[in-house]
């Protein structure tokens, strides 16, 4: 207990200290929200990676799907590294950076408004971001709650309340500058912790090395009347696995807190380096989480935890199998992964109120200092809403996260992607993407609810979310081909000197 407390106290002290230090660097909204668009490759790549992976991955996804799908979940880690990090950095990074700077936009709703000449798109996008990033933030708090409940025996509600307060303090103090600095140090902790976790898992008596662990998992998988497929290449449910890979990998292409990193990166050179750094980061973290989760049945003797269910699998493994010092490190790893993601979510969500709504509609001439104060207040409100959703009992960690990713990426991925790369994308095409993504999620939830007796926590949200994203990607270009195009002057303003390259792409 002493080791765990020491690790936790050191983490909290360093986090708050960075927030206080960063406060001196904040001179206005551009500093608070974008770090003056001057961050280099390491800071940006670690900010991207730490925003990507949180307690949701370790607790909700690795534990839950590792238990049900076994070794096939490692495909999720591979997909996250390639399609969630490398490809979006190469395809979206440079174009996002150059276009947002040329147009003077700093949020995704602003991008939609300027790119498609539509204030209505901006209003809808801002509303969706603020409302539906709340479940994602709640899922992170919930995952952290399970970890700390097992580590310290504290009631989850108090753990979540403490994490909410810590997020609020350092984010309100230092904004994106504090987030980026924290992300770098937290990323280092995550890398070290993940490597140590895997090494220890391999050498545990219950595991006895990789070969023995796979043999034990295969025995568990085949000892019943039906082979569970826990050691097969694509697992017991290949389509379910595909849905998970699509949602968790391509979902980053439409999530505002991920794309925000490209707005703030310094130059083209930083993007090229950042692509490599973030990909390596994702491989290490993703492999560490899913590898450990895949052997959950081996660790726990094929017995599901009685309290907490699937969300308690990883916390139980770590709390009962690791020595105190290493568990303290892993606990800080989870906290690091989650705090960085939380900060990114809160910052982006609050920006849609202060930048897109207040400055965009209510008071266009608002002074920067007043605008920043509103954004800080919105941070507090957003964190409070997330806290109350996190303590809602009828939901699992992975369902809350998948609801947020599925709906937001289902609506935004295709309009953003085609709007960024193709001059032929029309306003009607963007609206079609918005409507299709939302409708697909709504219909998917409504049709699945009877099958799970109305229990929201049992819905397979990754499948619904991946379908929403795929349908939107199909609909946007099809509708754009048959609807009114933007005039040449508008397209020249949007694409500038890169118009030919964008059209060719």
In CATH, the homologous superfamily goes by the name Sodium/glucose cotransporter
Mean pLDDT across residues: 80
CATH topology: Sodium/glucose cotransporter
Share of residues in helices: over 70%
Radius of gyration: 22 Å
Largest sheet geometry: none
SSE ordering? HHHHHHHHHHHHHHHHHHHHHH
Tell me the count of domains.
1
The number of E-state strands comes to: 0
CATH architecture: Up-down Bundle
Which secondary-structure class do the elements indicate?
mainly alpha
Span from first to last CA? 56 Å
CATH class: Mainly Alpha
Low-confidence residue ranges: 498-505
Outline type: globular
Enumerate how many helices there are, as a single number.
22
What percentage of the residues does DSSP assign to strands (E)? under 5%
Give the structure's gist in a few sentences.
The chain is mainly alpha-helical. The chain has helices spanning 2-23, 29-34, 41-52, 55-69, 74-103, 108-115, 119-132, 134-152, 156-203, 210-222, 238-250, 256-264, 268-294, 296-299, 313-321, 324-362, 368-390, 397-421, 427-448, 461-481, 488-495, 499-504.
Please describe what this structure looks like.
The protein has 505 residues and is mainly α. It has one domain: Sodium/glucose cotransporter (Up-down Bundle). The protein contains 22 helices and no strands. It has helices spanning 2-23, 29-34, 41-52, 55-69, 74-103, 108-115, 119-132, 134-152, 156-203, 210-222, 238-250, 256-264, 268-294, 296-299, 313-321, 324-362, 368-390, 397-421, 427-448, 461-481, 488-495, 499-504. The longest helix is centred in the middle third of the chain and has 48 residues, at 156-203. 57% of the residues are buried. Mean pLDDT is 80; it is low at 498-505.
């Amino acid at each position: 207990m002493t080791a765990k407390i020491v690790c936790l106290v050191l983490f909290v002290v360093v986090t708050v200290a960075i927030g206080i230090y960063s406060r001196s660097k904040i001179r206005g909204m551009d500093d608070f929200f974008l770090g003056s668009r001057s961050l280099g490759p390491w800071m940006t790549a670690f900010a991207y990676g730490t925003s990507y992976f949180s307690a949701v991955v370790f607790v909700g996804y690795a534990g839950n799907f590792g238990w049900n799908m076994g070794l096939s979940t490692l495909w999720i880690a591979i997909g996250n590294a390639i399609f969630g990090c490398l490809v979006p950095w190469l395809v979206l990074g440079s174009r996002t950076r150059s276009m947002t700077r040329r147009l003077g936009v700093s949020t995704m709703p602003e991008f939609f408004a300027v790119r498609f000449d539509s204030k209505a798109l901006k209003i809808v996008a801002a509303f969706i971001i603020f409302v539906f990033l709340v479940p994602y933030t709640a899922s992170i708090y919930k995952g952290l709650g399970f970890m700390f409940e097992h580590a310290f025996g504290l009631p989850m509600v108090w753990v979540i309340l403490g994490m909410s307060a810590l997020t609020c303090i350092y984010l309100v103090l230092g904004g994106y500058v504090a987030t980026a600095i924290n992300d770098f140090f937290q990323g280092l902790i995550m890398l070290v912790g993940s490597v140590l976790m895997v090494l220890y898992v391999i050498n545990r008596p219950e595991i006895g090395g990789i070969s023995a662990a796979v043999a034990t998992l295969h025995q568990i998988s085949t000892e019943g009347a039906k082979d569970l497929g826990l050691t097969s290449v694509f697992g017991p449910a290949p389509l379910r696995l595909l849905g998970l890979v699509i949602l968790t990998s391509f979902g980053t292409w439409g999530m505002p807190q991920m794309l925000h990193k490209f707005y703030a990166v310094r130059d083209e050179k930083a993007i090229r380096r950042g692509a490599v750094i973030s990909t390596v980061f994702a491989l290490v973290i993703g492999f560490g989480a899913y590898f450990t989760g895949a052997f959950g049945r081996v660790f726990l003797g094929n017995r599901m935890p009685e309290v907490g269910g699937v969300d308690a699998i990883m916390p139980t493994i770590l709390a009962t199998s690791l020595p105190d010092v290493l568990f303290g490190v892993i606990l800080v790893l989870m906290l690091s992964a989650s705090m960085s993601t939380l900060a990114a979510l809160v910052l982006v969500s609050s920006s849609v109120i202060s930048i897109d709504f207040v400055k965009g509609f209510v008071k266009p001439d608002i002074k920067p200092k007043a605008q920043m104060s509103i954004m800080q207040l919105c941070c507090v409100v957003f964190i409070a809403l997330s806290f109350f959703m996190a303590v809602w009992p009828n939901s699992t960690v992975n369902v809350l996260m998948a609801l947020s990713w599925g709906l937001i990426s289902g609506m935004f991925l295709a309009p953003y992607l085609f709007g960024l790369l193709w001059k032929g994308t029309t306003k009607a095409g963007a609206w079609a993407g918005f409507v299709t993504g939302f409708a697909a999620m709504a219909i998917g939830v409504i049709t699945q609810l009877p099958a799970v007796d109305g229990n929201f926590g049992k819905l397979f949200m990754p499948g619904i979310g991946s379908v929403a994203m795929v349908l939107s990607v199909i609909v946007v270009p099809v509708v754009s081909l048959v609807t009114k195009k933007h005039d040449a002057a508008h397209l020249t303003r949007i694409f500038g000197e890169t118009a030919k390259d964008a059209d060719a792409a």
